[in-house]
Amino acid sequence: MARILLAEDDASLRGFLTRALERAGHQVIDCENGDDAIDALEHGPYDLLLTDIVMPGADGIEVARVAAARQPGLRIMFITGFAAVALSAAQASPQAKVLSKPVHLRDLVAEVDKMCAAA
Q: How many helices (H) and strands (E) does the chain have?
């Protein structure tokens, strides 16, 4: 079981992701924006940061930067609906996985499991 910090501003998608990851046996701490996710880092450690990139407040790249500074070695996965933003994220965090929306829950859970198994 992994402890996952999830940052996603779309409430329905956040709910779907949380439920799918919890059904797969993970513990999920979900946040509706980047600022809340940065605050939630105080309640770590986490095994994985799963974050949207484009959100109100701090964007996902900023959340990942702060998270990596506070918890070196944290696995990071971005999800985004913007191809250009995905490229930017991949350049900013080359060790991170970038998934494009729409993402199938089954595929996302498989990627999370794969990243966490590599621990």
A: 5, 5
- In the beta sheet, which residues pair with residue 4? 28, 48
Q: Which of 99, 94, 96 lies closest to 79 in space, CA to CA?
A: 99
Pair of tokens at residue 50: 């799963």
Q: For residue 71, how many other CB atoms are within 10 A of its CB?
A: 16
Q: pLDDT for 11-56, tens place per residue?
A: 999 999 999 999 999 999 999 999 999 999 999 899 999 999 999 8
pTM summary value = 0.90
Among 14, 104, 11, 93, CA closest to 60 = 93
Token pair 């979900």 is found at 30
CA distance 80 to 53: 6
